[in-house]
């Protein structure tokens, strides 16, 4: 039976509408994904004056006010850090300065090294949820050695591919290294619930070049003020 013309018009109209919606959703969906992938998390660090202990509850209040999850707060000795996608870091920095007078506040917003599993590990998928591990150390005071260190990291993917392959083998999702002055901030993202100690051993398993890399990097790094003798990288542990 032949369909009435009115029904055919409605069918064609619905078809055009579906195509339009499909294109629209794909356009904005793709744009949203690109925007999300282009964003880079940052670290905001508060260094309290030695001998003067501030109220940790203040940073919790500030994070709640700015809708920052409390799991984003980390601490080591007199160092507090917030890590994540901070939309208004300057405004946040001002709020913190008002509540932590006399403290040094440092922002790490441009990683000079960025390992991303999606880009470096072939077709392997990213884990749905991550745990983030924060560590910090200083570069040695020698400016020549500092430049060497940065150059090594700028060319690592090309000249030392075994290092990033080690990260792939270990299941690292992302590894960022930031610098502010001489201080380095390292963020290692691993699948939620995994142990960094367990995974980290896989970076050097049957991988002598990564062992060589780790040994080479030792001459460029030293502990931040407050560390013990021969202590270099220290962990900032979750506050909550």
What keywords describe this structure?
single chain, 240 residues, alpha+beta, Alpha-Beta Plaits, 2 domains, 10-stranded antiparallel beta sheet, 9 helices, 10 strands, 42% helix, globular, disordered N terminus
Question: In brief, what are we looking at here?
Answer:
The chain is of the alpha+beta class and about 240 residues long. About 40% of the residues lie in helices and about 25% in strands. The protein has two domains: about 70 residues, Alpha-Beta Plaits, CATH 3.30.70.260; about 130 residues, 2-Layer Sandwich (Alpha-Beta Plaits).
Low-confidence stretches: 3-38
Distance between the termini: 70 Å
What helical percentage do the residues reach?
A: 40-55%
Q: Rough shape?
A: globular
Can you walk me through this structure?
With 240 residues, the protein is an alpha+beta fold. The protein folds into two domains: 40-109, 2-Layer Sandwich (Alpha-Beta Plaits), CATH 3.30.70; 110-240, Alpha-Beta Plaits (2-Layer Sandwich). The chain is 42% helix and 24% strand. The chain has helices at residues 5-38, 56-65, 89-99, 117-120, 143-154, 156-159, 161-170, 196-200, 208-217, and strands spanning 42-47, 73-76, 79-84, 104-108, 113-116, 130-139, 174-180, 183-191, 221-222, 234-238. Strands 1, 2, 3, 4, 5, 6, 7, 8, 9 and 10 form a ten-stranded antiparallel beta sheet that branches. Strand 2 and strand 3 form a beta hairpin.
């Amino acid at each position: 039976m032949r369909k009435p013309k009115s029904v055919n018009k409605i069918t064609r109209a619905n078809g055009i509408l579906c195509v339009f919606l499909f294109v629209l959703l794909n356009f904005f969906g793709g744009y949203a994904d690109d925007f999300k992938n282009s964003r880079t998390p940052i670290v905001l660090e508060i260094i309290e004056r030695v001998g003067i202990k501030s109220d940790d509850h203040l940073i919790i209040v500030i994070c709640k006010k700015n809708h920052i999850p409390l799991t984003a707060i980390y601490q080591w000795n007199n160092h507090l850090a917030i890590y994540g996608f901070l939309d208004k870091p300057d405004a946040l920095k001002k709020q913190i300065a008002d509540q932590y007078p006399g403290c040094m506040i440092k922002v790490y917003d441009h990683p000079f090294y960025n390992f991303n599993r999606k880009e470096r590990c072939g077709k392997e998928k990213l884990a749905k949820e991550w745990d983030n591990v924060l560590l910090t150390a200083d570069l040695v005071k020698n400016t020549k050695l500092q430049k060497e260190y940065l150059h090594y990291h700028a060319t690592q993917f090309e000249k030392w591919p075994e290092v990033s392959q080690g990260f792939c083998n270990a299941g690292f999702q992302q590894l960022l290294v930031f610098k502010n002055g001489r201080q380095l901030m390292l963020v290692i993202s691993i699948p939620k619930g995994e142990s960094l100690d367990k995974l980290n051993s896989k970076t050097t398993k049957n991988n002598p070049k990564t062992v060589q890399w780790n040994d080479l990097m030792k001459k460029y790094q030293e502990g931040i003020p407050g560390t013990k003798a021969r202590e270099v990288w220290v962990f900032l542990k979750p506050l909550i």
